[in-house]
């Protein structure tokens, strides 16, 4: 009796099936009273008929009845799901409710395969075993999916295990990086609403890059309610070898049609041995190049390709390697936009059509032919007021001439452009120069933006007092293309007006010097970009500079050198919100504008009006590849999305280090292996139903063996 007291039935209602024991008994009784008429010609058959009525034959029938009854009883007991209450179980009573949340990692790395079986499949099987350990109509549970935006099967804990099993069968690895901290916080919110036993079961590949944020924060336990027990399920898959592609980019950042473009992709060997891999490159679905590289164990580096892109607009670039254990990172996608001319912005409050103004000479220097066939630059004009809503992100350079008064918002727009890699040349001529520069300085108080601080305005009325450029840093990156003849020419130009200057900033670079040793042109870095401050203006009332060809050469060279050398456009990652970097004309908003994913399925987009232009956003991207924006069936813009590069590194985090990050108020953590027959979750004892089924099969085997022997 003490032995039976250690056994509890999870589904006692199934014991009603013991009524099926009557079936073998009825069959036995019917067979016992059956009479058969035998016609026999010889005494031999008579002896056989007598033998069937012997005591031994009747004993065999009783043995078969016992075996069949035992088989039925064992099967019924298995369906009643008995458990053994041993010392390792949590000793919950039948009426105690346990709350269990299964946190399942569905990040891209869980698609890795070993011997043809994906790791996400192993996680599904383990999760199903955990649900088997719960008691129907008593315990509650939920499933939290750890991806870029963690979600759950139900809004709260639920006893609806059949639906959870159905959802488990549908779980597949996503192309996203998992937000583990968000998933743990979501699980903690659900468990906090339960009074009683709380369990968090974490099923993950334990990828180091995915769990690093949790470990570094060290306070994962604070996201869980007190007295929560955390179990990390160790799938214990064999280490897999993987080669990944990531971070596709190109040089120069804004290529012209017919210009040679350098395409770059980062390749990583996450294996523990040397690997050789071939990388194929296609442009607009046509293969243009390939390269075979050899990588040592753990090596990663950029691989370069060169091509010429013809045609104006977006080009789809695909880098690809052969399949391996993790196929989601075997491709890298890139969109390169080519154009006829490069956009340059001139910000000025004077009339660019009025001869003698600074913006007039700047326009003529940047676009001397005034046509799209021969000029390299496309000029966009903004005033100090319209600069508030100006789109500067695709401009190769910004030139600031005469200004009335900048606003805070305009100043922040210029600073943001510089910080993201842009270049600005600010001319100190007429207008509120000191006030505008002070506004820029105030908005970059922590870092600083001005190469030198202007003092009082200087006016040299006498020609003999005028300043000349007498020295230059001609070998610097910005001025190295300024030839010797142009250097001589610019040294002979008179400057009638300038500003007194204080000592340049310590991190500033003075590029040109006046004859009185004051800076004529200086540069200072801010973020990824550069800010140039010129102590002169090209307007006729400030200098004779714009009358000479040396001015055109200087502006053309500076515009070329201010153009970002690298591609500062951020790589788009699957699962993140996307905003198209180029705004579209406002008039297309009334048309049939749609977006499609790489599978040519329409996806939701949102539009907004910014600076009298249309901004496009995609709030949910689920697969890598090329996304297309179409207007009346015609593609007007493209975007590329890639799997997060960290998903390609399959190295696992140290388990003990991970467990320490869950230390908290009453919170305990342990590791559970998926191997063996042991239950994944031992709340009320060890399940015995499997053993009952095995016993039933053994009894059936014994019955068949007896029948085989007796027939002999």
UniProtKB/TrEMBL annotation:
InterPro entries: Aerotolerance_reg_N (IPR024163), Class_I_gatase-like (IPR029062), Double_TM_dom (IPR011933), VWF_A (IPR002035), vWFA_dom_sf (IPR036465). Keywords: Membrane, Transmembrane, Transmembrane helix. This is VWFA domain-containing protein. Residues 8-82 form the Aerotolerance regulator N-terminal domain. Residues 100-205 form the VWFA domain. It comes from the Bacteria. The chain crosses the membrane at residues 12-30, 62-84, 688-710.
